[in-house]
């Protein structure tokens, strides 16, 4: 099936069960994962990214658009992730940050610049390519981080509390933008959050860990 599927996923640490999850996220849908601190939310995201620390053991399968990717190295997985912090490269311009996300297959200066310009325009930041990321507001940084990740053409999107540092008004605005851009591309989204309002805004199913 298209989308992200976790089949009988079980993660243990020193033999102790931490995460057990069965889930299917269709293209354009969101699954919210909630649970107390330490319940394994970030560990679950690492398992999907392929970056699970060696102290954990995992069984079960991860499927992406019908391909089983459980043992694929992280760089081969077309999975995008946004963290609590935007993690923009401070030594690159906004455009440089965006170009970093572009696949190598997009060749030629003009073609790459056009993709970057279109991505900026898509989130209302036309003309921002030469700006220093340090001069952006929190909401603008969040939009750049989103588009850098989407320019890499992921097949699924993982969100590790990316709205938690934004204040209430901005939070709703950025959240809507992330979900809308993901829906427009038909991406399955797995959202980790402590906030019931985030999960409600996502509109999909909610699972609780722990
Ligand atoms: N690299 C690691 N090696 C061993 N144990 C780890 C490692 N990383 C996390 N843990 C432990 O695994 C458990 C789950 O951690 P995880 O970060 O997945 O929780 P979380 O639900 O994301 O928590 P929070 O909401 O606080 O971010 C915790 O008990 C944590 O201490």
From TrEMBL:
Database matches in Pfam families: ABC_tran
Stated name of the protein: Putative thiamine transport system ATP-binding protein
Domain annotation ABC transporter: ranges: 4-209
Organism (species): Rhodovulum steppense
Sample GO molecular function, one term: ATP hydrolysis activity
PANTHER family attached to this UniProt entry: SPERMIDINE/PUTRESCINE IMPORT ATP-BINDING PROTEIN POTA, SPERMIDINE_PUTRESCINE IMPORT ATP-BINDING PROTEIN POTA
Keyword Nucleotide-binding: yes
Keywords annotated in UniProt: ATP-binding, Nucleotide-binding, Transport
Coiled coil feature spans: none
């Amino acid at each position: 099936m298209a989308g992200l599927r976790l089949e009988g996923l079980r993660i243990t640490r020193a033999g102790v069960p931490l995460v057990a999850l069965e889930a299917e996220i269709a293209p354009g849908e969101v699954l919210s994962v909630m649970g107390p601190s330490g319940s394994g939310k970030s560990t679950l995201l690492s398992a999907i990214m392929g970056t699970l620390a060696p102290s954990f053991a995992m069984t079960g399968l991860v499927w992406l658009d019908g391909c089983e990717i459980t043992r694929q190295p992280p760089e081969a997985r077309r999975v995008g992730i946004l963290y609590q912090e935007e993690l923009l490269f401070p030594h690159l311009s906004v455009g440089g940050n965006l170009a970093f996300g572009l696949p190598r297959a997009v060749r030629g200066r003009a073609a790459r610049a056009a993709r970057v310009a279109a991505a900026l325009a898509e989130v209302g930041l036309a003309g921002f390519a030469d700006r220093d990321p340090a001069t952006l507001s929190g909401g603008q940084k969040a939009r750049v981080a989103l588009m850098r990740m989407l320019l890499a053409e992921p097949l699924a999107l993982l969100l590790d509390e990316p709205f938690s540092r934004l204040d209430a008004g901005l939070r709703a605005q950025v959240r809507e933008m992330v979900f809308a851009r993901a829906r427009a591309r038909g991406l399955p989204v797995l959202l980790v959050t402590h906030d019931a309002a985030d999960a409600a805004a996502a509109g999909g199913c909610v699972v609780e860990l722990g």
